[in-house]
Design goal:
InterPro entries: Dynamin_N, Mitofusin_fam, P-loop_NTPase, Small_GTP-bd. This protein is α/β, with parallel strands linked by helices and about 625 residues long. The protein folds into 2 domains: about 5-30 and about 80-305, P-loop containing nucleotide triphosphate hydrolases (Rossmann fold), CATH 3.40.50; about 360-590, no CATH class. It is built from 17 helices and 9 strands. It has helices at about 25-30, 50-65, 65-80, 95-105, 145-160, 175, 195-205, 220-235, 255-270, 290-305, 310-340, 340-400, 405-455, 465-470, 485-510, 510-595, 600-615; strands at about 85-90, 120-125, 130-135, 140-145, 165-170, 180-185, 210-215, 240-245, 275. A 9-stranded mixed sheet has the order 4-3-5-2-6-1-7-8-9, with helices on both faces. Helix 2 packs antiparallel against helix 3 and helix 11 (about 310-340) packs antiparallel against helix 17.
Amino acid sequence: MFLKNKNFFDDPAPLKERTEKTDVQEENASSGKEQKDWEDVNLSFYDEAFMARLQKLEGYCREAGRKDLLEQLASIRAYLASEKFSVAVVGEFNRGKSTLVNRLIGRDIIPTSDIPTTSLPIYVSGGEQESITLKTVNGQKRYPVAEKSWEAIEEEKKKLRETKGAILLKRNCSLLMENDLELVDTPGVNSQIRGDLSMAEQALSGCDCAILPMAAIAAFSESEKLFLQERILMKKVPRIMVVLTKLDLVEEKQRLSVVESVQRKLEAMEAEIPLYLSAENMAEGWEERSGTEAIRKQILAWLHESSHIQLKKERASQEIKAVSADLATVYQCQLDIIAEKEEKRKETAEQSKQKLLRSAQIQWDALETDMLNRCNQNFEWIRSMTEERQQDVIEKLTLELTHVANPKDWWEKDYPYRMKMEMISLGNILENNLQGFYTRDVNWLNHLLEEKYGSAIPPQNQRIAEKGVFRAPMVQQAVELEDMKRSRLISRVGTGVATVGGYLVGGLIGLSPIGMAVGIGGGIISEVFMNKRVESQKRELTRIIREELPGVFSGSIETVERNIREVYISTIRTMKRTCSDWVKVKCDAIDAAQKQADDPKREEAIRQKLAELRGIGI
């Protein structure tokens, strides 16, 4: 992790002691102070009749054993009681979420990087004493606002097995303090961090406004469109804004067309979602919706709307209505069975259970097919990446071979080590990426299971790229090679002897120069033959490498593919057991209703509950 403005932590003067005009004072002008027509708005909501409906619904959820619905209602209570205007910044990683939050609060405090750094939601609110607090199931730990604090927080999180928790950041900022404003920086929903999607959805459930940054270099991808439709809009977030970031990475002549393309796609969704640009002077005609100042003004305009409480109540009412409808379905099923004539009750109960089971089976099969398709997509990535890696390794090794003087020594010592290092590197790449892909797919599956069955499954804790496979000693083809270092030495010794002998013999007969020439010429010829033998060995080893390596890579990849398939199949089995338990609970409820059908008090009690639930949902 890194901070773009590291000098921030070197400034010892607290913000409230500065006397000259600073960016904090300039921020005061942009945070709403000059808007005299704005009046203070009560951000919390309380209505006695409304809360009575909520309390009664909580009682029915406890009676029905629906813990998931109770948690949903608890979130509604917290949302209604909140005295802050919460803005959730959500979306995929590397889209500029943390950078945008830093700009809104006027300082580069939150770490930013091209790789995922936000692993827990960061709740930024106003406070005279600035601090960073790590909040987990084990308690709270407070840190000063300093770069080293983020490193300490990362070390602390590594000790925790669970990813649940949050980071609370207090910032001496007029925008936050004078407007009861809270910004929530969330992990990227595709960042391969366990639970990243659920953390984003939790922030959306309790927010008054959602900001979705999109990078101009890949704006409005299919995954971003689905996230906007299936997460933000389905959560009934009252106010939504899309911010186009990184326009500076697009060629200047293409920037306006990119902005207009995103605008058209937003208009096609018919949701009245405004588009803003994160930086100024990027597109002609967009001056009023460009830059941090324009984004601040829109947030404050929403915050001071007189309809804020009404929007809050409407959103809570819609969620209460959905919970009421969920419970009413169970009671209506029981009532339908009770209403049947006695001789048909058992038959009707059995038909209801069979219908429920068939419907669930269809859903299970569809989820299983989707998970297997996602597993197969991993295979395509593995093969594509491995083929490219394999070719790179072959080229690297054959190039290295061209520079060695003794192929036998290189083949027996260097080559096994080089291959081991390459295979370990490959194993680490496969493990990191495949674990990320698997986590993403389990998050997707759990989201659907929570929607349909009110439950989730834990991810499999299993290594996919086994270390033993990639760290195993290299088993290479046995090749008989001549030790060229030894042969050269023998050849040079022989040449030296011949040269000396030729000189002595030639000297006796008066032709010593000729004797020396014969010896030197023999040495040159010997060296030429040696070089040819070396080149011959290199060609042979190059051929073996090109034939042998594909099999080495293929064997390792087969193990990885088998492991990833086993992980996905195990996850599917767990999913089916979870779904089967849910069906069993429903079937038990049907059987209980059938057995108690003769009790008129039971029928009247169910009718009363059903009527009250329908009344609550209005």
